Amino acid sequence: MKKIVLLGVLVGLYTAAIAQSQQKYSAYLFTYFTGGKGGEEIRFALSNDGYHFRALNNNRPVLNSADISITGGVRDPHIMRTADGKTFYMVATDMNTEKYGWGPDYSMVLLKSTDLVHWTSKTIDITKLYEKFAGVNRVWAPQTIYDPQAKKYMIYWSMRFGEEADKIYYAYANKDFTGLETEPKQLFFKPDGGACIDGDIVYKNNKYYLFFKTEGSGAGIKIAVSDKLTSGYVLRDKYVQQTKDPVEGAGTFKLNDGSGYILMYDMYTQGKYQFTRTTDLENFKLIDDEVSMNFHPRHGTVMPITSKETAALTAKWETPEDVILSPINKQIKTINIVLDTAAGKVHLPVKPGTDLKSFDPRFTLFPGVTISPAKPQDFTKGAVKYSVTIAGKRAQVFEVTAQETHNPAIAGYYADPEILYAEKTGKFYIYPTSDGFDGWSGKYFKAFFSDDMVNWKDEGKILDLPQDVSWAKKNAWAPCIIEKKIGNEYKYFYYFAAAQKIGVATANDPAGPFTDSGKPLVAQLPEGVKGGQQIDADVFADPQTGKNYLYWGNGYMAVAELNDDMVSLKPGTTKILTPYAHYNEGTYVFYRNGTYYFMWSENDTRSPNYSVHYGTSKSPLGPIEIPQQNTVIAKDAAKGIYGTGHNSVIQIPGTDEWYIVYHRFNYPKGITMGDAAGYNREVCIDKMEFDDKGLIKQVTPTHEGIKPVHVKK
Prior knowledge:
- By secondary structure, the chain is mainly beta.
- Helices cover 8% and strands 41% of the residues.
- Strands 20-3-2-1-21 form a five-stranded mixed beta sheet. The chain has a five-stranded mixed beta sheet with strand order 22-23-26-25-24. Strands 4-5-6-7 form a four-stranded antiparallel beta sheet.
C-alpha cells in the first residue's frame, strides 16, 4: 500500500512538473523581415496564442541592419533561447538584395541578448574565415540548436560552391556566441543531388526532424529524420506544405498548451504566409482561417516567451496606437479601421446586425498593457473613451466610435465583382477576383451569396486553377456568369480569365462546383488588334433577340456571338467595339427601356483615378455613342475612396431599381500603398439611378452602402 501511495505521489509530482513547464511560457515572439525597399531588417511581433500576431514598433525594425551586418541588410532571422533559459541567440543571413541583388553572399550575423531588447552582434564571413570555403558564393538562412551531447550550440545553414547544388552545413559556435570554433561540415544533402536550403531542426521524442526546402523542379518543403543531431538523416520523400504555390523558409514551433506544433512558411510568390498544425510532425493541417497578422512577414521564426519577457518587449516597442488598433471581435471589419492619430480618434466599422448597445471590441492585450474600460460599452450614444496604459509610459486616451457600414460589402480583399440573381435559388451571388495577392497572382475563385444584398456568406472556392483547370495555373481574374434554364433544369456558365486567356466552366448550381471545359475559349488577340490582354469577360443575353454575346478585352473591347452551347463562339462574329482611346478594360453590358448600355473602366486599376464610364447603343453590337457626361462612378477623395472601377450592375427583378457593384482601394490604407493598392481591393455596392432621358446619374461612392433589398415573389 505504501508503494502504491508513493507511486501516486511521484506521478502527481511529475504531472504537476509537466503542467508547470507548459505554463512557463505564455506568449510567442515572432522575428521576421518584410522584404522590398527597406525591408531587409529584423522586426518583432507578439502573440498570446500562437495564432494571432501583432507587430511591435508599428512594424518598423527593432535593429538597424547597417549596425549589425556587412552588407547593410539581413534576412531569415532565427531566434532561440539557450538551454539555461537566461540568454537568447539570433542568427540571420547577411544579405542586401536592394543594393547587391542576389549575391554572392558570404556572411551570417550572430546576435546575443539577455533581455530580448538589447543585442550585441558579430558577423562571420565564411570565405575569409576558412580557406577551404573561399569558393563559396551563398551562405543562407542560418539557424541554431543546442547539442546536448557536445554541450554546445550548433549553427547550421545552407551553402553553395560555384554553380553546385546548395547543401546544409553545420559548425559549433564558440562559448561567447561571437564566432565559430569548428570548421563547417556537411550536415545534409539531397540524395538526388538537388539543392536544399532553409533548414529548420525540431527535436521530438528523441529524434531530430530536419525541415528543408528543395530547389529546382518540384520545389517545396520536405523532412529528413535522424536520432542524431549531426548525422544519419533519412529523407521522408514527400512534401509537407499545404499548397501548390512555391514556398520557403520553414519555421516550426511548439504550442505552449501542448496541443501540437505549428509549421509556417513563406509563400514568397504570393506575398503570403501560410500556417499549418501538426501533432506528429508528419501530418499537417492547413489553419490559415485561424491565423491573423497585421503585417506581411518573410522567412521568420517563432519562440515561446514568458509574461515577464513579453512585458519587457511591450514596454520597449508597443505603442498605444498598436493597442487601440488591435480589436479581434469578429463583427469588426478590421482592415477598415480608421485611426486619426492627431485627434486621438478611432472608428470601428462593424458588420450588419452588430449589437452596438453592448459591444466589446476585444482589444488584444499583452502583459504590461492595460485598457479601460474593459467591459462591453454602449456605442449608440457616441464615442466611448478608452485609456491605454503601457508599463513605464503615460496613459493615452482615445475616442472610439463604432458604426454599422455595408461597404465593403464582402469582408476581405476581393475585386472585379460580378453579381447575379439566381432564379433557381432566389438568392443573390457575387463572383469576384480573389485579391490581396502580390501582382494579381491569385489562383482561385470564390462565390458569396445573400438574401438581401447586405448580409453576404462565403460559399468557398468554386474553381481552383491548379486543381480544376488543365490549361492555366495562374492569374485567376475577373469572372462573369449567366443563368440559363434548359428544359426544366438550370445551368450556369462561368467565364473567367486565367493566364491572360478566357475560359468557361459549367455547373448545375450557382455555387458550383464548376467544371472547366478543358480549353480556353479565347486565347489570342482578335484580328487587327496589336496589344492588350484577353481578360475581363462579360456575358450578355439580348432580351430582344435571344442571342448571347461574350465581350472581353484589355486595351480593346471585343464581342463575339456565343453558340447555343454557350461554351464556344460563332466563327466570323468577332467584332471590335472599342469606344474611344480612354477605354481600358472591364466591359459590362445591360439593357434598359430599348437601350443597350456599355460600361467600362478607364485608367489603371493601380491608379486612384480608376473609374467607370459608359456609352449607349441601339444594338448589342454597337456603334457606341458617348454621352457628354459619361462618368458612372469615380473617386471621392474627401471620403478617402479611391480606385472605384471594374463593375457589374443588377436590376432587381420586377422593378426599375438598379445597383452598381464595383471595387475600390482598401479603405483607409489603400491610398498609402502605391501600386500595391491595385491588388488590395474590396467590393462595394451603391444604388444607381437614371434621369428622365435614360442617362445614368453619376453615382456617389459611399461607406454606408445600401439597405437590404428583397425580391418580391
